[in-house]
Write a structure and sequence with these properties.
This protein is an alpha/beta fold. It has helices at 38-48, 63-74, 118-124, 142-151, 167-175, 188-193, 236-247, 253-268, 278-285; strands spanning 2-6, 10-17, 29-36, 52-56, 58-59, 83-84, 92-97, 103-109, 133-137, 156-159, 181-187, 200-206, 212-216, 219-223.
Length: 286
């Protein structure tokens, strides 16, 4: 498929402790710098799965931004329509993981994504042809998400990103004329905030080790997580979203979740937020 992904791209600084994390203390562990951002991670995973990916973003206007842009070029993500934010504007995420790979907490500095305005999108989208699906994360402004809901001509998938940013979907849908999105992906905390939202064709709710719930119409379906030796959970949700999208807009719930859960498992068993062996490992599982 040919997919347009719109949203945040940043450098991820991931710290993982050797032993259970102790608040208010220095914790021995490892620190890694990798390219990240929900939309960028989704785009990266889709490219690894073999999809043609056009990525619209504003990279940070600093060394981290150059680093992140280069990571996209290396996996053949098309960033020719993306731009760099003004010099000094950051796009960075710092996460602290427990020894078991579970996220303890994080800090997001995503000012660069504020530049993804409706006007900026209006100057970019007409230049893109033959798109089978669009994907947006909530790092972009509310007005920009509204613009996408009302103006894209292929199924739109939206990732809630975080509890802090998930409410942007509610306001974007309120402002929208169409008030319809093809699919939404969120975790259980974000889902509580979005429980009453209308106009979502299919809602995928990640429950971590407990699996995934899917809501379509008045029906709810549950799927258990695949057995997994977790190394790092950061990026697993992005991989699941990529798998759901890769399955295609016409996929059944079962087909989409099957691909999504396989991608999430492969990513959890890798120290980075994207497993560059995704295609080989996924093919081996099928």
């Amino acid at each position: 498929m040919r997919i347009c992904v719109i949203g945040g791209a940043n450098a991820d600084i991931t710290a993982t402790t050797f032993k259970p994390f102790k608040p208010n203390d220095s914790n021995p562990g490892t620190i890694r710098l990798v390219p990240g951002g929900v939309a960028r991670n989704i785009a990266h995973n889709l490219a690894l799965l073999g999809d043609q990916v056009v990525f619209l973003t504003l990279f940070g206007g600093d060394t981290f931004g150059y680093f992140t842009a280069d990571s996209c070029r290396r996996v053949k993500i098309d960033i020719t329509l993306s731009d760099a934010a003004p010099v000094g504007t950051r796009s960075c995420f710092l996460s602290i993981n427990n020894a078991d790979g579970e996220l303890v907490g994080g800090v997001s500095d995503m000012l660069a994504a504020d530049g993804i305005t409706p006007e900026w999108l209006a100057s970019k989208l007409p230049k893109i042809e033959n798109i089978d699906a669009y994907v947006a994360d909530t790092n972009i402004p509310i007005e920009s998400l509204t613009y996408l809901i009302d103006h894209v001509d292929a199924p739109l998938y939206v990732d809630a990103v975080s509890s802090a940013k998930a409410p942007r979907i509610i306001e974007a849908m309120r402002q929208s004329e169409k008030k319809q999105i093809h699919a939404l992906k969120c975790n259980w905390m974000e889902n509580e905030l979005l429980a009453e939202i209308k106009g979502v064709g299919r809602r995928y709710v990640s429950l971590g080790a407990e699996g995934t719930d899917v809501v379509e119409g008045e029906k709810r379906y549950h799927f258990d997580a695949l057995p997994c030796e977790t190394v790092n959970t950061t990026g697993a949700g992005d991989a699941m979203m990529a798998g759901i999208i890769h399955a295609g807009p016409e996929a059944t719930i079962e087909q989409a979740v099957e691909v999504g859960l396989r991608c999430a498992k492969i990513t959890c068993e890798c120290p980075d937020n994207v497993n560059n062996q995704l295609k080989q490992l996924y093919d081996a599982m099928v």
